């Protein structure tokens, strides 16, 4: 599942969600703005930052990290990113906090001894989604986080329940809820048909953003596949004109070439006189890739 983009969408639509995960959120939590940043030299990618209101500067910056796969170098990378970014933006912020979101405790980095003082401080918060409580007792935004962790046997039922709940506030509309739930379910049941997903959720997907985006992705992939297939077909026709009929083994070899090699072949074939030139080119290609 594309959890990074799902969490990005959730935090973008509802920045206050991060502070629902904390026992002591800042007083001005409602004024925070979500963003994502890249730190260069070396290049780091921070999942998300929550910037305090301009009126509160210098204020506390919150960093978020969503980690669904075990990574035993996570804290090394995360704290390097945080300290480098905070160093470069020191005049803008008075302090920092970090929130690391895991599906379970088992996903957390095993060796934490070098970072025990930070992890035991009030600056770093570890959140385990399976410990937030019963999904139906949570706020809708928190329930959506938990929905990404559920197995197939529960996900469909809980998704239908979430769609039946009322949402309040202009920043998290019913339409947004439908889009996020369907996005989660479409990617969670990637092999399922549109009709199967509709039956699971008891809605029509045709008007949801998730369905429109996936259809657009499919069209783009189709155009790319069509472009590649057309290019291969053109090269085969040019080769046949240049060196004569191609043996089946040669056709199979050409079909296995990556697209960049096909493009190179399109230029090289202008110098071919017969089949031996093509075979020699293929042998050189094999040697360069071995």
Would you write up a description of this structure?
The chain is α/β, with parallel strands linked by helices and 290 residues long. It has three domains: 131 residues, Trna Endonuclease, Chain: A, domain 1, CATH 3.40.1350; 73 residues, no CATH class; 77 residues, no CATH class. The chain is built from twelve helices and five strands. Strands 1-2-3-4-5 form a five-stranded mixed beta sheet. Helix 9 runs parallel beside helix 11. It is elongated, with a radius of gyration of 26 Å.
Keywords summarizing the entry:
single chain, 290 residues, alpha/beta, Trna Endonuclease, Chain: A, domain 1, 3 domains, five-stranded mixed beta sheet, elongated
Compile the SSE list and pairings.
Layout: H1 3-13, H2 17-20, E1 33-39, E2 44-51, E3 59-66, H3 74-88, E4 93-102, H4 116-119, E5 124-128, H5 140-147, H6 152-164, H7 174-188, H8 194-201, H9 209-243, H10 248-255, H11 259-268, H12 275-289
Parallel strand pairs: 3-4, 4-5
Antiparallel strand pairs: 1-2, 2-3
CATH architecture tag of the largest domain: 3-Layer(aba) Sandwich
Shape: elongated
In what order do the strands lie side by side in the largest sheet?
1-2-3-4-5
CATH level 1 class label of the largest domain: Alpha Beta
Write a brief caption for the model.
By secondary structure, this protein is an alpha/beta fold. It is 50% helix and 13% strand. It has a five-stranded mixed β-sheet with strand order 1-2-3-4-5.
């Amino acid at each position: 599942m594309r959890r990074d983009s799902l969490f990005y969408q959730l935090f973008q639509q509802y920045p206050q969600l991060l502070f629902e995960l904390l026992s002591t959120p800042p007083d001005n939590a409602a004024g925070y703005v979500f963003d994502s940043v890249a730190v260069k030299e070396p290049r780091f990618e921070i999942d998300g930052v929550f910037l305090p209101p301009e009126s509160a500067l210098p204020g506390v910056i919150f960093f978020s990290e969503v980690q669904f796969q075990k990574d035993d170098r996570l804290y090394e990378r995360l704290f390097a990113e945080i300290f480098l970014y905070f160093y470069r933006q020191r005049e803008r912020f008075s302090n920092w906090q970090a929130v690391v979101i895991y599906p379970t405790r088992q996903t957390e980095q095993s060796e934490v001894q070098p970072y025990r003082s930070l992890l035991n401080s009030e600056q770093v918060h570890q959140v385990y989604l399976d410990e937030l409580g019963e999904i139906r007792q949570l706020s809708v935004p928190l329930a959506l986080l938990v929905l990404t962790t559920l197995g197939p046997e529960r996900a469909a039922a809980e998704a239908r329940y979430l769609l039946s709940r009322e949402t309040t506030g202009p920043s998290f509309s019913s339409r947004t809820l439908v889009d996020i739930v369907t996005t989660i379910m479409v990617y969670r049941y990637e092999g399922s048909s549109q009709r199967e997903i509709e039956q699971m959720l008891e809605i029509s997907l045709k008007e949801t953003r998730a369905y429109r985006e996936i259809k657009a992705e499919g069209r783009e992939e189709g155009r790319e596949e069509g472009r590649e297939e057309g290019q291969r077909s053109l090269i085969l026709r040019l080769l046949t004109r240049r060196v004569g009929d191609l043996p089946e083994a040669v056709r199979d070899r050409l079909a296995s070439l990556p697209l960049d090699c096909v493009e190179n072949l399109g230029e090289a074939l202008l110098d071919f006189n017969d089949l031996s030139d093509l075979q020699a080119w293929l042998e050189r290609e094999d040697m360069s890739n071995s």
